[in-house]
Amino acid sequence: CMEAYCAASALARDGKRAMLEHPESLIAARAGGAADAVDAKLVIDCAKEGDETAKAVFDRYIDSLSSACASIYNLLDPEVIAIGGGVCGAGEFLFAPLRERTTGKCFYKTHGRLIPAELGNDAGMIGAAMLLTGKWNKPGVYTVEEFDPDPYMEALNKWGLPWQINDKPVL
Question: Which pTM was predicted?
Answer without folding.
Answer: 0.76
